[in-house]
Specification:
- 16% of the residues lie in helices and 32% in strands.
- It has an 8-stranded mixed β-sheet, with helices on both faces.
- Among the domains are: 356 residues, Alpha/Beta hydrolase fold, catalytic domain (Rossmann fold, 3-Layer(aba) Sandwich); 91 residues.
- By secondary structure, the chain is of the alpha+beta class.
- Strand 26 and strand 27 form a beta hairpin.
- Helix 5 crosses helix 6.
- The chain contains 10 helices and 41 strands.
- InterPro entries: AB_hydrolase_fold, Pept_S9A_N, Peptidase_S9_cat, Peptidase_S9A, Prolyl_oligopep/macrocyclase.
- Its EC number is 3.4.21.26.
Length: 727
């Protein structure tokens, strides 16, 4: 066990912004008992000293998290510069005078989320016409007395007269959905709980909607995500009687697994309904039926695709169904088949595989759009089914491109945007018929300090096996490549999700302090297509953290930073990356940020959201995959008597994706094992889940993590006058 205490200079110091402030003593690091539990996995013996922390209903466990959180807050509160960093986040946020999001048109009404700098979360507005007078429809922060609600989603019906609004508390994402009359701004009697993300699909007649609820609002309920059912709600009826339309029970011959979400939704033109199995496997399993089948005692489903078809998304446009597929094409290709009788095996190749990776597919009323990537930079192409011609969408700039639609089934009007590491981006209105871009009414000019001085380098570096791995490096002009700069290196590498360029005001606050930022692109993402994803998946997962380590070695070798100033960060599934990086190469890092992290992979299936993720990481029920899980398990690779870097683990108490005991067990193991004398903290966010829209909570959370890392990396803005870490 380590105790962190701070001593004061014996003389008085005049405090000014340029002088580090003295810190006071903090309470002792809470003791964590070891209670060994031994398991044998296919002949391999594994001892778990902290299994008792998995019982989140135990008062002892709750007390442990509370004491760890209190201790962490006491330490973080003593770091000079933390509060100034929060204020810098606030100041930069004020420079964007208004933020618009999720703009949806129905009839002549435009619905959107709008957030002002003075507000910690967005409100729902509507305006008649794109430039009409706006009206406040709903303020989630004023919804419940004594509680803080946020709006997870809002879904207007096709004529813009009614809305379904999803509401959640404390970042839980499990939402209560309510219906609202747009004219009167009044809620209907319905209150349906435990709808993940608050998403629904309206019926064609706007008299009800399809949805899939969890079994419980408790994010820690082990049965909450299992054997869920796709249901139908008719407005004005009792939700407790909502019929089951799509589930294991309703469709026993479909091979639906308990951990798969049976989700139903309509095609954009609402002529077809789809039954889709929600899982982390990118290969889709889905069925299709005429929309008229909904409401019948049994829907006449027809198979659309299965995992062996390797279809990752599909879109109906007219009488054709467009399929994004990676079967025999690791970079992806676009197929087209008959929408009424779809057959991926006989579908026609519309867009062949190329050197660029197809990342997304979307459609407006008459056009299909495809986004392609070279690994970092994207471009958008459009296809006209009438002329059968492909053309590029003329979006200025480089980086990440996006396209969204005001009212896809009834209009071609689109919003197009671009962003990159050093460009906040521009929002355009786009007409695919004329291929003309104009700056959107919803674009708000942004002018942030220091952006013009940012330098971006996109390089490829050799990994442990010689594979060339992309690495994005961002820093302020004038960087001395002598290893003296602190560097925050981030990574993810899972689910085929790529580290595409984005502009961040939080990152800018660090860059303007001389911090180097590095975004790694390890295998497990899709920067180089499906093959890149599969090279960091289950048994090949070690490539993910080894690519991350190689990126850090490159930064040190080339003088961007040094091992004493390198801070590694991984979030969620990126917890595997950062956890195994510091357990394999503890000497490479000054500090690590393990944020809402998967840290105990061998036990993930014992958490509420664990079973569904077995498709990505593996299951302990398979001998090969079980050993792969052990290999990617950071907690089980913590070794007594090792000099580990400083570590801050972060858990969201309301997190429905990664339960808090995952980072908690890693923190406990490191606290009892490390001999470096460097702090290991467990931050517990009781007002947060996996993430939150609440700016007050988010700014505090990121400032805590960044200040901790930069303190340990020796950045002058975050140094107490003197600190002592001792046993």
């Amino acid at each position: 066990m380590k105790i962190i205490c701070f001593t004061l200079f014996s003389c008085f110091v005049f405090l000014s912004p340029s002088v580090a402030q003295p810190v006071t003593s903090v309470a002792r690091l809470p003791v964590t008992a070891k209670r060994p539990v031994t398991d044998t996995y296919f002949g391999k013996t594994v001892v778990d000293n902290y299994r008792w922390l998995e019982d989140m209903n135990s008062q002892e466990t709750k007390d442990w998290f509370k004491s760890q959180g209190d201790y962490t807050n006491a330490v973080l509160n003593q770091i000079p510069g933390r509060d100034k960093l929060i204020q810098q986040f606030v100041d930069y946020d004020k420079l964007l005078t208004v933020r618009y999001g999720e703009i949806k048109k129905r009839g002549n009404r435009y619905f959107y989320r709008k957030t002002l700098p003075s507000e910690k979360a967005g409100k729902l507005y509507v305006r008649e016409g794109k430039t009409g007078k706006e009206t406040l429809l709903f303020d989630p922060l004023a919804y419940g007395k004594g509680k803080t609600y946020l709006m997870t989603a809002f879904t207007p019906d096709s004529d813009g007269k009614k809305l379904v609004i999803g509401l959640q508390e404390g970042g839980a994402e499990l939402s209560t959905v309510r219906t609202m009359d747009v004219v009167t701004k009044t809620f209907g009697p319905e209150s349906i709980t435990a709808v993940f993300g608050g998403e629904v699909s309206w019926l064609p007649d706007n008299n009800g909607f399809l949805y899939t609820p969890n079994n419980s609002m408790d994010t820690k309920d082990p049965q909450g995500n299992l054997n869920t059912k796709g249901r139908l709600h008719k407005l004005g009826t009792d939700p407790t009687n909502n019929p089951d339309l799509f589930s294991i029970e309703k469709n026993p011959d479909f091979g639906i697994k308990p951990d798969q979400y049976p989700i139903m939704f309509y095609s954009d033109d609402q002529t077809q309904v789809y039954g889709y199995l929600g899982t982390v496997d990118r290969r889709t399993t889905a069925w299709v039926a005429p929309a008229s089948e909904v409401g019948k005692s049994t829907i006449g489903w027809k198979r659309l695709c299965t995992v062996t078809d390797s279809v990752t998304s599909f879109i109906k446009l007219g009488d054709q169904l467009f399929l994004q597929s990676v079967k025999g094409a690791p970079n992806g290709r676009i197929l087209v088949t008959d929408a009424t009788n779809p057959n991926p095996a006989t579908a026609t190749v519309l867009l062949p595989e190329s050197k660029q990776n197809i990342t997304r597919m979307a459609s407006s009323k008459d056009f299909l759009f495809v986004i392609l990537s070279d690994g970092i930079n994207e471009k958008i192409r459009q296809y006209d089914p009438h002329t059968r011609q492909w053309t590029d969408v003329p979006v200025p700039g480089t980086g990440t491109m996006g396209i969204e639609f005001y009212d896809a089934p009834r209009s071609n009007d689109a919003i197009v945007y671009s962003t990159s590491w050093n460009d906040p981006g521009t929002i355009y209105d786009y007409n695919p018929e004329t291929r003309k871009l104009v700056t959107s009414t919803f674009h708000v000019p942004m002018n942030y300090p220091g952006v013009a001085d940012l330098v971006v380098e996109e390089v490829e570096i050799p990994s442990h096996d010689g594979t060339m791995v992309p690495l994005s490096i961002i820093y302020k002009k004038g960087l001395k490549r002598d290893g003296s700069a602190a560097c925050l290196m981030n990574g993810y590498g899972a689910y085929g999700m790529s580290g595409t360029p984005y502009f961040s005001r939080r990152n800018l606050a660090l860059l303007n302090r001389g911090v180097v930022l590095a975004e790694t692109h390890p295998r497990g993402g899709s920067e180089k297509g499906q093959a890149w994803y599969k090279a960091g998946y289950k048994t090949t997962k070690p490539n993910t953290w080894k690519d991350f380590i190689a990126s850090g070695e490159y930064l040190v070798k080339n003088g961007y930073t040094s091992a004493g100033k390198l801070v590694g960060m991984g979030t969620s599934a990126g917890g595997i990356l950062i956890g195994r990086a510091i357990t394999e190469r503890p000497d490479l890092f000054a500090a690590a940020i393990s944020n809402v992290s998967c840290s105990n992979a061998l036990r993930m299936e014992n958490s509420p959201n664990g079973p569904i993720n077995a498709a990505e990481f593996g299951t302990v029920n398979d001998s090969t995959e079980c050993m792969a899980l052990y290999e990617m398990d950071a907690f089980n690779h913590v070794k007594e008597g090792t000099s580990y870097p400083a570590v801050i683990c972060v858990g969201g108490w309301n997190d429905p994706r990664v339960i808090a005991w995952q980072p908690g067990k890693l923190a406990a193991a490191l606290q009892n094992a490390s001999t470096s004398g460097k702090p290991v903290l467990m931050q517990v966010n009781y007002d947060n889940g996996h993430f939150t829209e609440d700016k007050t909570v988010s700014f505090r959370n990121f400032a805590n993590m960044f200040a901790f890392g930069l303190w340990q990396a020796g950045h002058p803005d975050f140094q107490p006058i003197k600190e002592v870490v001792r046993k």
